TrEMBL record, chain A:
Protein name per UniProt: Protein TolB
Cellular compartment(s): Periplasm
Superkingdom as given in the UniProt entry: Bacteria
First and last residue of the signal peptide: none
Main location class: periplasm
Biological processes, Gene Ontology terms: protein import
Family as reported in the entry's similarity comment: Belongs to the TolB family.
Xref: SUPFAM superfamilies: TolB, N-terminal domain, Tricorn protease N-terminal domain
UniProt keyword list: Periplasm, Signal
Automatic annotation (TrEMBL), chain B:
Family to which this protein belongs: Belongs to the Pal lipoprotein family.
InterPro entries to which the protein is assigned, alphabetical: Bact_OuterMem_StrucFunc, OMP_bac, OmpA-like, OmpA-like_sf, Pal, Pal_lipo_C
HAMAP family: Pal
GO biological processes: cell division
Primary localisation category: membrane
Signal peptide: none
Designated name of the protein: Peptidoglycan-associated protein
Ranges for domain OmpA-like: 134-250
Subcellular location: Cell outer membrane
Any one of the GO CC terms: cell outer membrane
Length: 443, 250
């Protein structure tokens, strides 16, 4: 959505192998932001506490904790332990030149502080957070933000402040206010839930009592598309409007109707259906409601994922016997195989920057892990290791994290990991079976 | 970004309750689907298929979805999608306070789903229907078929089971049978749905070979989503790689 193109557009010719010859449009693969480059230096940031001025006792501490976690996960900033480098202050004001100077001399680029409490003269539930930013490069107080709201938006205040900081220093909106939709076991059923990207505030969005599977966001993040078992015997692809809970059926063909994915511009819904015998990929024009079949072969084709340009689709196919990841043009032409290592590669997810496709790879030890491959097939990385069945990778909108489900701790839970395999973090703790996470676009 | 808290709230809750009424609103907007489903009794009503799918083999076709579904095109959305409503920092020079931003709704407004009475009833119906199927299948003595890892090939043992199943189905002319494809927990959720369908269809095809009418056999895949056994070992996995043959309750 928020595409900042810095690199030059080039086209690569690649030999895809096994006699397949393909010309890959790699315009999308050269999109870089400074902060995704391996040599990117994180910006050292120091966070003073948020002084409490009335309001609940936990308020300042909560804001500080959420903000710090957001800044850490942004991978744009590195948190400086201020007391450890001798920068201490009980209270900071916008005119504290001495503190600013001391922080700057200790290599801190950005300083953040604030206060929080009851909003003056307001009804009891109104809370307030003030946040301020000092930049040592320009030696000035950049400015501040004031948020007001009920206790239920305290985490959002910190998230929003973190996103403003990321936006100020990268031009991107940040991911602290993003959400993850996922499937959770609820009674004997599987229902859809939406939670904050850090695992907080889970909310149930369906209550059908059977199976709702494989949710994905619309690009404007107002809707969720998913597979719903309408009865126990048939499936539809439905769309649910989050704000109202209203639901529509988009696809209702015979057989499997699974793995829906809206194109980046929202104009097409790609999905898999087995109405013609075996699972094939179709594309529905959401404006004209015209369907088009994209794949024609005896194997099972499923799990379409759009390139950020909307010009190509990666998908799973077992046309060679075992599931592998393939790429085709969005009109179904120019099909070529992308993965060659191992005999089970599935569930591809094209990164929002275009330069990687994450997928589930089966290792030589027959473990199901998360791998990434460049769209030209030249680079391949195994991102997760160790025990547990990993599934359903989905990218953060900034392209720096992958969320996925794993059974590494016994029951299936939702995790996130940096694209280099570091920063593994479990984000669901309740429930008996959480799966199929999908990360929302930034907003 | 000022989030209009007041505009969501009650009206949306009311709307949600309407949606939850036994799934009735869902039924009313259902599109046709293909009327040529071989799954008798499950065939969806709907008009003739459009020609758009005609070139792909002519089986079935796709009814255009409900004409009313909302516009999903990003081009019709407001510009502030690009920055997510971020406004930048306000100047605080001279001790000025930043201007106030009121937050509500958690960024993405979510209608709350309260498991309602009608949902509870629906869940109870599903449970009862399943119990009925189970009892009918046990009484008929229908046997399931088990598969190897990654495989949808029917084994010799599976053939014997199906030979017995076919005899019962042929002897009970009124009965409708459903074959559920199941998988063990290894592999991806999505591919296991396809694998489960391959297993169910392999079972159906063999029963047809044995002379059972295809129109009496429905298939459905549950992938790894409704396992028979929840432990993490081979004997449990074996239980879950299954073509489950059941007498349909309707």
């Amino acid at each position: 959505m928020n595409r900042v193109i810095i690199g030059l557009m080039i086209a690569l010719c690649v030999v895809v192998g096994a006699g397949l010859f393909g010309i890959l449009d790699s315009r999308a693969t050269d999109v870089f932001l400074e902060a995704t480059r391996p040599d990117f230096q994180k910006i050292p940031i120091g966070v003073f506490g948020f002084q409490n001025g009335g309001g609940p006792e936990w308020l300042g501490g909560r804001i500080e904790e959420v903000l710090k976690a957001d800044l850490q996960r942004s991978l744009v900033f590195s948190l400086v332990d201020l007391p450890a480098i001798g920068v201490k202050a009980r209270e900071v004001s916008t005119t504290d030149k001495a503190i600013f100077k001391q922080a700057a001399e200790n290599g801190v680029s950005v300083l953040v502080w604030g206060k929080s409490g009851q909003k003056n003269g307001s009804k009891e539930s109104e809370l307030l957070m003030d946040g301020f930013v000092y930049d040592s490069g320009s030696d000035e107080v950049v400015g501040g933000k004031r948020y007001v709201g009920s206790t239920s938006v305290v985490r959002l205040m910190a998230h929003r402040f973190a996103d403003e900081l990321v936006f100020r220093y990268t031009g991107e909106p940040g991911i602290a206010r993003t959400k993850i939709v996922y499937v959770a076991e609820h009674g004997n059923a599987r229902e859809l839930f939406v939670m904050d990207y850090d695992g907080y505030e889970p909310k149930q969005i369906t209550a059908d009592g059977f199976l709702n599977l494989m949710p994905r966001w619309s690009p404007d993040r107002r809707f969720i598309v998913f597979t719903a078992y309408r009865s126990r015997n048939t499936q539809d692809i439905d769309i649910l409007e989050l704000a109202t809970g209203k639901r529509w059926t988009l696809v209702s063909m015979a057989g499997l109707n699974i793995t829906p994915a809206l194109s980046p511009d929202g104009n097409f819904l790609a999905f898999a259906s087995s109405q013609d015998g075996n699972s094939e990929i179709y594309k529905l024009d959401t404006r004209t409601k015209t369907p088009q079949r994209l794949t024609v072969n005896q194997g099972g084709d499923l799990s379409p994922t759009w390139s950020p340009t909307g010009r190509e689709i990666a998908f799973t196919s077992d046309r060679g016997g075992a599931p592998q990841v393939f790429i085709m043009s969005a009109d179904g032409s120019n099909v070529r195989r992308l993965t060659y290592e191992g005999d089970y590669n599935a569930a591809p997810a094209w990164s929002p920057r275009g330069n990687w496709i994450a997928y589930v790879c089966r290792t030589a030890q027959r473990l199901y892990k998360i791998c990434t491959v460049s769209p030209d097939g030249q680079k391949r990385v195994q991102v997760t290791t160790g025990p547990g069945i990993d599934d359903s990778p989905s990218w953060s909108p900034d392209g720096r994290h992958i969320t996925f489900s794993s059974t590494v701790d016994g029951k299936s839970h939702i995790y996130m990991v940096d694209t280099d395999g570091k920063g593994l973090e479990r984000i669901t703790f309740g429930g008996t079976h959480n799966s199929s996470p999908s990360w929302s676009p930034a907003l | 970004m000022r989030i209009p808290v007041a505009t969501m709230g009650l009206t949306l809750t009311v709307g949600m309750l309407l949606v939850m009424q036994g799934g009735c609103s869902k039924k009313s907007i259902q599109s046709g689907g293909d009327a040529q489903s071989t799954e008798r009794g499950m065939a969806k009503s709907g008009g003739p298929a459009p020609s758009a799918m005609g070139s792909t083999g002519g089986v079935g076709g796709m009814e255009p979805p409900a004409a009313t579904f909302p516009d999903l095109s990003l081009s019709s959305k407001p510009d502030d999608l690009e920055t997510g409503g971020l406004r930048g920092f306000d100047s605080v020079s001279g001790g000025k306070a930043p201007s106030e931003e009121r937050l509500g709704g958690g960024g993405t407004m979510l209608a709350k789903v309260e498991p309602s009475e009608s949902t509870a009833r629906q869940i109870e119906d599903i449970r009862r229907e399943q119990a009925k199927e189970q009892a009918a299948s046990a009484e008929a003595g229908l046997r399931d078929v088990f598969f190897g890892y990654d495989s949808w090939t029917i084994t010799e043992e599976g053939r014997q089971s199906l030979t017995q199943d076919a005899q019962w189905i042929k002897a009970n002319a009124g009965a409708l049978v459903k074959i559920e494809g199941h998988c063990d927990e290894r592999g991806t959720l999505a591919y296991n749905l396809v694998l489960g369908e391959k297993r169910a269809k392999a079972v159906r095809n063999y029963l047809v070979e044995l002379g059972v009418g295809a129109n009496r056999l429905a298939v459905v895949s549950y992938g790894k989503e409704r396992p028979f056994c929840n432990e993490r070992n081979e004997s449990c996995y074996q239980q879950n790689r299954r073509g489950h043959v059941v007498v349909r309750s309707k």
